[in-house]
Amino acid sequence: MLRSKLVSLLALGLYVAGSTSTYTNAATPWQFPASLTNVVASSPTTGGGYPVPAGSRVPIAGTCGPGPFNANHSESWIAVNPGTENLVGSSKFFFDKYSTFYMFYLGAHQIPHGTPSGNNQIRGYDCLSTGTQAMPPSWTDTTDPNLDFDTQGRVYQVMLPFNSFFDATKLHPDGEIDISFSDDMGGTWVKGNGGQPLEPSNNASAKQAGHVEDKQWVAVNHIVGHSFQDHVYAAWAVFNGSSNGQGVKVKMAVSRDRGQTFDNAVTITPPSQVGAAATFVIPQIDAAGDVYVSVVSFPPNGGASTIYVARSSDDARTFSPFVPITTVSAIPTAGLPNTRFRDGITESFSASPTFPGHLYLTYEDWDTVRGQMDVKFTQSTDRGLTWSAPVVVNDNIDAAGVPTDQFQPSIAAGPGGAVAIAFYDRRAACPSDPSVLAADAGRTNFCIDVTLQAYKDMGSGAVSVGANRRLTQHTWDPEQPGQHRGGLSQYPCAGARDPCPSGRGFIGDYFGLVVSAKNVYALFVSTHYPSNVTADEGGPVYYQQQVLASVPRSSLGNGY
């Protein structure tokens, strides 16, 4: 459960899909929504980063310098400025040609009026923007994108800078938790809390088990006129125990002055309620301004995990007891069948901005009998006290003996009772086109699409609107990029090795989804779109790019 330590001008592919386009898998239609668009949101930029010297798998302190962010863009989140169609995305920007060594920083994608316009490294954590090689304030990496707006157009992100040194004798600070915010749609960023960390750094190395921060998230109260308007809630997990998962706690800090200062962080997960190891924290704000958090509790010796939710009605000063929602069966291996990439986080959680106390939770669940992953959904209409029986979200009907995986769901709730779930989907066989490796063409339960399921809550709970809909024009190959640069694999590897071990490839642990007044937006990985970076083998490198899918709510029907 510990985090793995460790762009050239793109062809911006714009696709408008008609409502008559369908793809059939067994007996289930899989339609594009009317007026769907797919646009590449990632584009080249520059900044500070670390090379990895020949013969090593880690950087050397003091070698940070300028270079391109012109490679893979993995893992993302997206937020919309309330009452507008202006969005900011964030994703991992891999540095130069060092993707296989897991060298990256978070970057921001500016998306005014729903159209990508540029991106940049989030500064304040690298040697160029800090003006020093000292560690900290400079770090080798930043990770785990998360975003939310307040009512005045400020967007916030809880940051996790860390140092990618994998030697227990090198006591570089391991990591810390910070907050950054932007007042210009993610173009420039400022460290909040007076420049001080929310969770201070320590001198444990990346190899030592103890005080490792991970999986941070942010939520902001953007209810105009509410007594807690623009209060910012930052949450994260701290791993304080051994590698068997003991001693993982969730902490939260609150700002009541728009990120300028934060109260001291407090632990919000009593072990007596959620066990000794709880992480994957996601805070949310409902229509009444109450703060909710979901967490996943992992048994220290294996077995089914449990998802819990708790509520605060006093500005996160105290929380109700954590309510167990459901148990979850995790895949017994590091990754899904057939592929090298590791699996992502378990759950995604959202609260209604329309109906107080209406909560929506989706999660992936491994079917031990059929040997495949499903996406499930449960909800509460009584402030999280009781929850509906989980239902399967994906509606694919697989051929006998050929199961497919649906995994890494994201959920979002928007104005007017709109709810959406999107997830990665392997129901379609790999196509034959230049972006798919020749060895993968035609393979089943292998290549990836993104699927959307719409829901509508009219006050009695969310009800599905139609069938699953396909959000991707192009099915993409998770084994890309299969090319090399300077003799180095360009495949992103959470194991920081070349070649990458099985179960250690990286497509991101989650991706972004948001619902505005007019549209549903998703920001996700695809390797379909070629870069203009030339591979050692000749031809383009097919990097992981961030693709923005935009769907008009009106095209989803039933008053959505």
Provide an overview of this structure:
The chain is mainly beta. It has a single domain (15-556), classed as Neuraminidase. It has helices at 127-130, 271-274, and strands at residues 15-17, 22-25, 28-31, 36-40, 45-49, 65-69, 73-80, 87-94, 104-111, 118-121, 141-143, 148-149, 155-162, 178-182, 190-191, 212-220, 232-239, 248-255, 266-267, 278-285, 291-297, 305-312, 323-328, 347-351, 359-367, 372-380, 391-392, 406-413, 418-425, 449-457, 462-470, 484-485, 488-489, 512-515, 519-526, 545-552. The longest helix is centred in the N-terminal third of the chain and has 4 residues, at 127-130. The relative contact order is 0.15.
Structural class: mainly beta
End-to-end separation in angstroms reads: 38 Å
> What's the helical proportion of residues?
under 10%
Summarize the main sheet.
Answer: 5 strands, antiparallel
Spatial order of strands in the largest sheet: 1-4-36-35-34
> Hey, roughly how much beta strand do the residues contain?
35-45%
By CATH, the architecture is named 6 Propeller
What is the C-alpha radius of gyration, as a whole number of Å?
22 Å
Principal-axis shape equals globular
Number of strands: 36
Number of helices: 2
Low-pLDDT stretches: 1-27
CATH topology description: Neuraminidase
Task: Quickly describe the structure.
The protein has two helices and 36 strands. The chain is mainly β and 560 residues long. A five-stranded antiparallel beta sheet has the order 1-4-36-35-34, with no helix packed on it.
